[in-house]
Write a structure and sequence with these properties.
Largest sheet: none
Mean pLDDT: 83
Structural class: mainly alpha
Low-confidence stretches: 204-208
Oligomer: single chain
Number of helices: 7
Length: about 210
Protein backbone atom coordinates (compact mmCIF):
# COMPACT_ATOMS: atom_id res chain seq x y z
CA UNK A 1 0.00 0.00 0.00
CA UNK A 2 2.77 2.36 0.99
CA UNK A 3 4.67 1.48 -2.18
CA UNK A 4 1.62 2.32 -4.26
CA UNK A 5 1.31 5.72 -2.60
CA UNK A 6 4.99 6.47 -3.25
CA UNK A 7 4.66 5.54 -6.89
CA UNK A 8 1.53 7.68 -7.22
CA UNK A 9 3.32 10.69 -5.75
CA UNK A 10 6.28 10.19 -8.06
CA UNK A 11 3.94 9.97 -11.02
CA UNK A 12 2.16 13.16 -9.93
CA UNK A 13 5.52 14.94 -9.54
CA UNK A 14 6.62 13.88 -13.02
CA UNK A 15 3.34 15.06 -14.54
CA UNK A 16 3.62 18.39 -12.70
CA UNK A 17 7.18 18.81 -13.95
CA UNK A 18 6.06 17.95 -17.47
CA UNK A 19 3.24 20.50 -17.27
CA UNK A 20 5.67 23.18 -15.99
CA UNK A 21 8.05 22.41 -18.83
CA UNK A 22 5.29 22.80 -21.39
CA UNK A 23 4.15 26.01 -19.73
CA UNK A 24 7.65 27.52 -19.78
CA UNK A 25 8.11 26.57 -23.41
CA UNK A 26 4.77 28.10 -24.23
CA UNK A 27 5.66 31.33 -22.42
CA UNK A 28 9.04 31.43 -24.12
CA UNK A 29 7.39 30.97 -27.52
CA UNK A 30 4.95 33.81 -26.88
CA UNK A 31 7.74 36.11 -25.75
CA UNK A 32 9.81 35.24 -28.80
CA UNK A 33 6.84 35.94 -31.05
CA UNK A 34 6.34 39.33 -29.37
CA UNK A 35 10.00 40.19 -29.84
CA UNK A 36 9.83 39.18 -33.52
CA UNK A 37 6.86 41.50 -34.00
CA UNK A 38 8.67 44.31 -32.21
CA UNK A 39 11.73 43.79 -34.39
CA UNK A 40 9.60 44.28 -37.50
CA UNK A 41 8.13 47.46 -36.00
CA UNK A 42 11.61 48.74 -35.14
CA UNK A 43 12.80 48.19 -38.72
CA UNK A 44 9.65 49.88 -40.06
CA UNK A 45 10.30 52.81 -37.71
CA UNK A 46 13.89 53.16 -38.90
CA UNK A 47 12.82 52.98 -42.55
CA UNK A 48 10.14 55.63 -41.98
CA UNK A 49 12.62 57.90 -40.18
CA UNK A 50 15.18 57.42 -42.95
CA UNK A 51 12.54 58.30 -45.55
CA UNK A 52 11.66 61.46 -43.60
CA UNK A 53 15.35 62.34 -43.40
CA UNK A 54 15.67 62.01 -47.19
CA UNK A 55 12.52 64.08 -47.70
CA UNK A 56 14.00 66.82 -45.52
CA UNK A 57 17.18 66.83 -47.60
CA UNK A 58 15.15 66.91 -50.81
CA UNK A 59 13.09 69.90 -49.63
CA UNK A 60 16.21 71.83 -48.61
CA UNK A 61 17.82 71.08 -51.96
CA UNK A 62 14.74 72.29 -53.84
CA UNK A 63 14.57 75.52 -51.84
CA UNK A 64 18.25 76.21 -52.53
CA UNK A 65 17.70 75.45 -56.21
CA UNK A 66 14.92 78.04 -56.37
CA UNK A 67 17.00 80.61 -54.49
CA UNK A 68 19.97 80.18 -56.82
CA UNK A 69 18.02 79.54 -60.01
CA UNK A 70 18.01 81.81 -63.04
CA UNK A 71 14.28 82.41 -62.80
CA UNK A 72 14.82 84.22 -59.50
CA UNK A 73 17.18 86.63 -61.28
CA UNK A 74 14.73 87.35 -64.09
CA UNK A 75 12.12 89.07 -61.92
CA UNK A 76 11.99 92.59 -60.54
CA UNK A 77 13.67 93.47 -57.25
CA UNK A 78 10.42 93.85 -55.29
CA UNK A 79 9.06 90.44 -56.28
CA UNK A 80 12.48 88.84 -55.79
CA UNK A 81 12.72 90.20 -52.27
CA UNK A 82 9.29 88.82 -51.38
CA UNK A 83 10.10 85.41 -52.84
CA UNK A 84 13.45 85.30 -51.05
CA UNK A 85 11.74 86.05 -47.74
CA UNK A 86 9.30 83.18 -48.36
CA UNK A 87 12.15 80.83 -49.34
CA UNK A 88 14.13 81.79 -46.23
CA UNK A 89 11.07 81.22 -44.06
CA UNK A 90 10.55 77.76 -45.56
CA UNK A 91 14.24 76.99 -45.16
CA UNK A 92 14.11 77.96 -41.50
CA UNK A 93 11.02 75.88 -40.81
CA UNK A 94 12.53 72.87 -42.57
CA UNK A 95 15.74 73.16 -40.55
CA UNK A 96 13.73 72.98 -37.32
CA UNK A 97 12.84 69.39 -38.23
CA UNK A 98 15.58 67.23 -36.73
CA UNK A 99 15.70 63.54 -37.64
CA UNK A 100 18.47 61.19 -36.66
CA UNK A 101 18.81 57.50 -37.46
CA UNK A 102 21.88 56.11 -35.74
CA UNK A 103 23.97 53.27 -37.09
CA UNK A 104 25.67 50.61 -34.97
CA UNK A 105 29.26 50.18 -36.19
CA UNK A 106 32.31 48.22 -35.17
CA UNK A 107 35.75 49.83 -35.05
CA UNK A 108 36.58 48.83 -38.64
CA UNK A 109 33.36 50.37 -39.93
CA UNK A 110 33.97 53.55 -37.92
CA UNK A 111 37.42 53.90 -39.47
CA UNK A 112 36.10 53.22 -42.98
CA UNK A 113 33.36 55.84 -42.62
CA UNK A 114 35.87 58.40 -41.37
CA UNK A 115 38.15 57.77 -44.37
CA UNK A 116 35.29 57.91 -46.89
CA UNK A 117 33.95 61.15 -45.41
CA UNK A 118 37.42 62.69 -45.43
CA UNK A 119 37.91 61.86 -49.11
CA UNK A 120 34.58 63.42 -50.09
CA UNK A 121 35.22 66.52 -47.94
CA UNK A 122 38.59 66.98 -49.61
CA UNK A 123 36.99 66.84 -53.05
CA UNK A 124 34.35 69.40 -52.07
CA UNK A 125 37.07 71.86 -51.03
CA UNK A 126 38.63 71.63 -54.50
CA UNK A 127 35.39 72.16 -56.44
CA UNK A 128 35.64 75.96 -56.54
CA UNK A 129 39.14 75.80 -58.00
CA UNK A 130 38.36 73.16 -60.62
CA UNK A 131 34.67 72.39 -61.04
CA UNK A 132 35.05 70.16 -64.09
CA UNK A 133 37.90 68.16 -62.58
CA UNK A 134 36.01 67.94 -59.30
CA UNK A 135 32.91 66.69 -61.08
CA UNK A 136 34.88 63.92 -62.80
CA UNK A 137 36.48 62.96 -59.52
CA UNK A 138 33.11 62.81 -57.75
CA UNK A 139 31.76 60.68 -60.60
CA UNK A 140 34.60 58.22 -60.01
CA UNK A 141 33.72 58.12 -56.30
CA UNK A 142 30.03 57.63 -57.09
CA UNK A 143 30.88 54.86 -59.56
CA UNK A 144 32.50 53.01 -56.66
CA UNK A 145 29.12 52.94 -54.86
CA UNK A 146 26.91 51.44 -57.57
CA UNK A 147 26.42 47.79 -58.43
CA UNK A 148 25.84 48.20 -62.16
CA UNK A 149 28.79 48.83 -64.46
CA UNK A 150 29.24 52.63 -64.64
CA UNK A 151 30.27 54.49 -67.83
CA UNK A 152 33.07 56.28 -65.95
CA UNK A 153 36.27 55.08 -64.24
CA UNK A 154 35.92 53.67 -60.74
CA UNK A 155 38.01 54.85 -57.82
CA UNK A 156 39.22 51.46 -56.60
CA UNK A 157 40.66 52.79 -53.35
CA UNK A 158 37.41 54.53 -52.45
CA UNK A 159 35.43 51.41 -53.39
CA UNK A 160 37.45 49.27 -50.98
CA UNK A 161 36.81 51.80 -48.21
CA UNK A 162 33.05 51.99 -48.90
CA UNK A 163 32.72 48.20 -48.91
CA UNK A 164 34.16 48.21 -45.38
CA UNK A 165 31.47 50.65 -44.19
CA UNK A 166 28.18 49.62 -42.59
CA UNK A 167 25.37 49.06 -45.07
CA UNK A 168 23.43 52.15 -43.98
CA UNK A 169 26.58 54.26 -44.26
CA UNK A 170 27.12 52.96 -47.80
CA UNK A 171 23.65 54.20 -48.76
CA UNK A 172 24.25 57.59 -47.14
CA UNK A 173 27.62 57.99 -48.88
CA UNK A 174 26.05 57.23 -52.25
CA UNK A 175 23.19 59.66 -51.59
CA UNK A 176 25.59 62.44 -50.59
CA UNK A 177 27.62 62.00 -53.78
CA UNK A 178 24.45 62.07 -55.88
CA UNK A 179 23.41 65.33 -54.20
CA UNK A 180 26.82 66.89 -54.84
CA UNK A 181 26.74 65.89 -58.51
CA UNK A 182 23.26 67.40 -58.92
CA UNK A 183 24.42 70.61 -57.29
CA UNK A 184 27.39 70.82 -59.65
CA UNK A 185 25.15 70.22 -62.65
CA UNK A 186 22.77 72.98 -61.53
CA UNK A 187 25.67 75.36 -60.92
CA UNK A 188 27.09 74.71 -64.38
CA UNK A 189 23.69 75.35 -65.97
CA UNK A 190 23.35 78.66 -64.13
CA UNK A 191 26.85 79.74 -65.20
CA UNK A 192 26.08 78.94 -68.86
CA UNK A 193 22.78 80.82 -68.71
CA UNK A 194 24.42 83.88 -67.17
CA UNK A 195 27.24 83.83 -69.71
CA UNK A 196 24.75 83.46 -72.56
CA UNK A 197 22.79 86.44 -71.30
CA UNK A 198 25.93 88.57 -71.25
CA UNK A 199 26.61 87.69 -74.87
CA UNK A 200 23.06 88.56 -75.83
CA UNK A 201 23.07 91.85 -73.89
CA UNK A 202 26.43 93.55 -74.55
CA UNK A 203 25.01 96.91 -73.43
CA UNK A 204 24.76 95.54 -69.92
CA UNK A 205 28.56 95.39 -69.86
CA UNK A 206 29.00 98.94 -71.13
CA UNK A 207 29.33 97.99 -74.82
CA UNK A 208 27.60 99.98 -77.56
Amino acid sequence: MAQAKIQAKMSDAQCAKFRRTLSMADRSGRLLESLDQLEMRVEALREAASAMEQERECILEMIQSIQNGQEMRNICDGEREELELTANRLMGRTLTVEISVGTIRNSQQEDALRKATSMIDEMVKKLLDDMEGGRQRLQALHAACVTEAPPVPIDQKFQAIVISCALEDQKNIKRRLETLLRNIENAEKNIKIMDHQKLENPNANGCQ
